[in-house]
Amino acid sequence: MQLDIGKPILDKNDRLAEENRELLDAHGIFMLNILASPGSGKTSTILATIEALRSKYSFAVIEGDLASKVDSEKIKAAGIPCVQINTGGICHLESNMIANALKAFDLDSIDILLVENVGNLVCTTDFYLGENARAVILSVPEGHDKPVKYPIIFQEADAVVLNKVDVIDYFDFNEREFRASLSQINPAAPIFPISATKGTGIKAWTGWLDSIVIETRG
Amino acid sequence: MHEFGLMSSILDTVNSSAAEAGASRVVEIRLTIGEMAQVVEEAMVFALEALSEGTLCEGAKLTIDFIEPRSRCPECGVEFEHGFYNRACPECGNPLTDIIAGKEMYIDSIEVDI
């Protein structure tokens, strides 16, 4: 006997993500999902982003890692509310994890919620969490060919951050090829070369974030 | 690598739908998946075998209907098939085209024994 299902594979995740979105909208919170490999500088980019915009917006952060509180301690040390999600073996964040984490925040006092997804260029992209926008960070040492090797994550990005540009001379990183492949995969996404730890390019990146937050929150 | 996460979600839906219908086992699971979702069929079959043990889906056959990527140009209205990387409009060259097919991830239907 045939049973018609007719449902998206990630139906349950997507429905919960919509609930997250509604809850965040009700509190006027903009959520940015940050996707990248391990070691690309997600946490330092988050810290630099907050530093640049904290006079204008109140931030909160959700940190996703398989284990440890290493990252959330860095965020809390900067005086920012942060919830650490330890996924155990799961290689990406799912919308129910975000729903649980949101319970720990005072939502009325947050303007921008930055979600640091688990370091992974594959699985994280499938799971909508309820975010308003996605940023993918690639760091120079990972190589300019990553968009060609992992196209989906770059295709779904609203912005691409190229981190660690301060060491570009020490690596065989061809920025022209990097931009050429991105323009094939996702021509609409702006690219922001930055050095999160040196502060290079942070103004342009946070200017974009500021503008999209204003546009979304109206 | 993402196939395990996807299959785990598929089995949640399929096992509960089959149980609701009073099925004794699931014979076949039929999916529609866009090629741009980069789902590997062999990995899906392996994930199904690994994750379905002891459930109604144990031993079920997996059939995937893969959909080729198509986009539409918002400037000139042309619809065209394309590969993974270059989806610039073949007529006017506009690089900012809209994907209209090729990203699907659906469970279509299942075949069950009652």
Word description of this protein:
The complex is a heterodimer of chains A (218) and B (114). Chain A has 218 residues and is an alpha/beta fold. Chain A is built from 8 helices and 8 strands. Chain A has a 7-stranded parallel sheet with strand order 4-3-5-2-6-7-8, sandwiched between helices. With 114 residues, chain B is an alpha+beta fold. Chain B has 2 helices and 6 strands, in the order αβαβββββ. In chain B, a hairpin with a 6-residue loop joins strand 3 and strand 4. The model of chain B has no long low-confidence stretch (mean pLDDT 94). At the A-B interface, strand 1, helix 1, helix 6 and helix 7 of A face helix 1 and strand 6 of B.
In short:
Chain A is built from eight helices and eight strands, in the order βαβαβαβαββααβαβα. With 218 residues, chain A is α/β, with parallel strands linked by helices. Chain A has one domain (11-213): P-loop containing nucleotide triphosphate hydrolases (Rossmann fold, 3-Layer(aba) Sandwich), CATH 3.40.50.300.
Which structural traits does this protein have?
heterodimer, A: 218 residues, alpha/beta, Rossmann fold, seven-stranded parallel β-sheet, 8 helices, globular, B: 114 residues, alpha+beta, hypothetical protein PF0899 fold, three-stranded antiparallel β-sheet, 25% helix
